[in-house]
Amino acid sequence: MLKKTSLGIIILMGLTSFIRPPKSIVSNHFTKPLYFEIPLGAIRPRGWLNDQLEIMRDGTTGHLDEVYAKLKNDNGWLGGKGDGWEETPYWLDGAVPLAWQLDDATLKAKVLKYINWTIDHQRPSGYFGPITKAERDSGAVINLANCQKGEDWWPKMVMLKAMQQYYTATNDPRVIKFMTAYFHYELRALKICPINKWSDWAESRGSENILVAQWLYQKTADKSLLALADLLDKQCFAWSEWFAGRNWAINAAAHQDDKDWMHRHGVNVGMAIKAPALNYQRTGNPAYLNAMKTGFGDIMTLNGLPMGAFSADEDLHGNLPTQGTELCAVVETMYSMEEAMAITGDTRYMDALERITFNALPTQTTDDYNNKQYFQVANQVEIARGVFDFSLPFGREMNNVLGMRSGYTCCLANMHQGWTKYTQHLWFKTQHNGLASLVYGPNQLKTTVGAGNTAISVAEVTDYPFSDEIGFNLSTPKPVQFDWQFRIPSWCSSATISINGVAAKTGKGGQLVNISRIWKNGDQIGLKLPMQVSVSEWGRNSRAVERGPLVYALKLGERWEKGHDEHEGDYFSVYPTGNWNYGLSEQIVSDPAKTLTVTEKPLSGKFVWNLQHAPIEIKAEGRLIPNWQLTDGVANQPVTDRDGGYRGAVSDTLSHFTLIPYGFTKVRIVAFPVVKK
After folding, report:
1. Residue 23's pLDDT is what?
2. Which InterPro entries match (predicted)?
3. Are residues 74 and 202 in the same domain?
4. CATH assignment at residue 440
5. pLDDT grade, residue 255 (50/70/90)?
6. Are residues 557 and 581 in the same domain?
7. Do 44 and 143 fall into the same domain?
8. Sign for the pseudo-dihedral over CA of 154, 175, 179, 433
9. Are strands 655-661 and 524-528 parallel, antiparallel or unpaired?
């Protein structure tokens, strides 16, 4: 399912056994990323992506602090006694990039309140965060001698990521000073107050801390930052070793008890996937690249689901399409892919990013971005209260419904980083000041390129992923020489790149194609990525229909019902209005190109991820399976034989039905059993 990259370093890592990191890290081990991020605000969304971000601005991303009491009331990150843990930083981690991507003055002013308070109230020791209980009670100020009176390391990691993004947008020198003081404090304090002193969350998620420390090292060349990253790696969960050793993946898939559940918590895993890449960056040891490849491959093999996510309800929970996936796991996995692809240049992570973004992400929120679903299910025949087949169902049975506060509210705060960070990673700079188009979507880029830092702009004009054509219109004040790299997705057998209407290069799936030339004002670059229908295999011999980066699910009518829970507020349930229990004809599996009919229509009006706006339909056929019925809301997958076919009773009548992209559905079947025609 995952193609190899042509980069020699990935081939090398496959031949290298895992080696533990050296005990001491020196600066000449540090390996620069293959690609460098563009400053926040230089990439502006356009087309359907701009519509999505404007919906978020008008919804909870732009107004969570007004509509959600936990953030609204006496917020600890503004000096109050309210939320002083992860949810305010989570929200800022998505609201900060949105403010600059849309150049929204109101939202900029809103998020700046939290940034300014945090910087202005940093303690002389370098410690930062809300006023601690000990400080309120005794008047003490947190320093190295009384670090035990501080509070959890974990939420500070998230706030550091928000600060990092703010700096790339503004170059505010206060941020560098602030981070340097904190990291110097942290390096000393961790020897007295280790990372797990207050919570396992910090111990399991230290990669977020390492990431920002190593980012700052690239700005300041302060070697103590590498020593800090090394210490953090030693004190936190040994994700790189676990991924490489493989016993972790097997045990996580085999056991669903209360022992070591933090080791298989889906959000922890989503964050940790990038840990080996960060260790490679710090040490230059290519064995870490192999650890990441092995770990990610094992996670997806044992727990992967058709929409690009892995089961995480909350734990890793196998590959049956009836398992759930937490929204936080979706957005954190996306971010890990974004960071990993910049460091490694491995196209498998670029492919994975697009798959999870265009399929798993949009289905888990409502049209107005005001309600979220804590756990989505691949084969989700209904959205309702219930236990389902989740490893953590909760007593109030609210994990599957769509609500602002249903399930844990961490996802209400954390969901905002998904689309904004995807937008931010549509472009990268190469090591020689060229451009890299590694994932795609409509946007406008302003940056500098070439030896003389010539200011250019590029309009990326496309409806991708709903179209296989991507156009790039270049504006430059003078001719300029630079390299421009284009990723060819693994699902594309052969792509064509044209310049001013003339074919310039072709490339195969899984490749990065580089064009080095003197570019001129008005150059028009076209990228054609032919999309063919295909069928992929998933848990219990089920099959999913794919085309390009999109996975297709059964189109079902929807009946929405509004409910209210005393503790978790208003929520929505969604039920299907037609038959759902179809098996897919075996002829489709054998020859999808011949047996499936694709219909496309242009995007029109304000774009929304819902049934009414789905721009692509695929006509398919199969038969109803009468005995395939819901049990406690779960559409348990029918058993098939080793040939992949369902051998139970099916309808005598051949049925025709419609598939649409998964992201436009709320209730659906995406992983079908296979039946005889």
Report:
1. 40
2. 6-hairpin_glycosidase_sf, Beta-AFase-like_GH127_cat, Beta-AFase-like_GH127_middle
3. yes
4. 2.60.40
5. confident
6. yes
7. yes
8. positive
9. unpaired
Rounded to an integer, the average pLDDT of 249-256 is 91
Give the DSSP letter string of 253-293. HH--SSSSGGGSBHHHHHHHTTHHHHHHHHH--THHHHHHH
pLDDT at 608 over 70: yes
Same domain, 513 and 538: no
**Number of neighbouring beta carbons within 10 Å of residue 643:** 9
8 A C-beta contact, residue 142 and residue 127: yes
Question: Full-prediction pTM beyond 0.90?
Answer: yes
Domain around 210: 31-236
Angstrom distance (rounded) from CA 220 to CA 331: 29
Strand partners, 472: 460, 525
Those residues with Cβ within 8 angstroms of residue 522's Cβ, 6 or more apart along the chain or in another chain: 473, 474, 475
Q: Residues 134, 136, 137, 141: is their CA dihedral positive or negative?
A: positive
* Tokens read off for 94: 């998505």
As beta bridge partners, residue 645 has: 674
Burial status of residue 566 (CB atoms within 10 A of its CB: 0-12, 13-18, 19 or more): exposed
Provide the domain count of the chain.
Answer: 3
CB distance 94 to 416 below 8 Å: yes
Do 544 and 448 share a structural domain? no
Please choose, from the candidates 443, 513, 524, the residue with its C-alpha nearest in 3D space to the C-alpha of residue 483.
513
CB neighbours of 162 closer than 8 A, spacing ≥ 6? 89, 92, 93, 96, 111, 115
Tokens 């070697």 belong to residue:
223
For residues 229 and 207, what is the distance between their CA atoms, to the nearest angstrom?
9
DSSP string, 61-114: HHHHHHH-HHHHSS-GGGTSSS--SSHHHHHHHHHHHHHHHTT-HHHHHHHHHH
Question: What one-letter code names the amino acid at 309?
Answer: A
Query: What angle is formed at CA 373 by the lines to CA 372 and CA 377, rounded to 5 degrees?
Result: 150
Give the pLDDT confidence score for residue 17 in this predicted structure: 39
What's the sign of the alpha-carbon dihedral 411, 63, 46, 105?
A: negative
CB 320 within 8 A of CB 539: yes
- pLDDT tens for each residue of 114-151: 999 999 999 999 999 999 999 999 999 999 999 999 99
Q: Which pLDDT value is given to residue 539?
A: 95
State the Cα angle at 202 between 304 and 32, rounded to 5°. Answer: 75
